[in-house]
Amino acid sequence: MDKIMKYSDAIASLESIMADIQKGNLDIDVLSLKISEAKSLIAFCKEHLYKVDAEVKKMLEDIADDEGCEA
């Protein structure tokens, strides 16, 4: 079974990658892999944020509609 990544885990991984890169001790091949991993994590985070934003907007619209019906 695949582990479902959480946003907080992705951010923690990105922070770890940034720390490794900032140390400046990475071999060029490892650096390339770290950057590739970071790119994937950023894409995941961006997609997740857009999804959550849409869900929150929908919930707020539903609340506004419910309040409008009660008036």
- Tally the beta strands: 0
Question: Helices and strands, in N-to-C order?
Answer: HH
Structural class comes to mainly alpha
Spans of 5+ residues with little confidence (pLDDT < 50)?
A: none
Name the overall outline: rod-shaped
Tell me, rounded to a whole number, the average pLDDT.
Answer: 91
State Rg. Answer: 19 Å
Number of helices: 2
Helical residues, percent: over 70%
> Biggest β-sheet: count, sense, barrel?
none
Strand content: under 5%
Domain module count: 1
C-alpha termini separation:
48 Å
Describe the structure.
This protein has 71 residues and is an all-alpha fold. It has helices spanning 7-23, 28-70. α1 (7-23) packs antiparallel against α2.
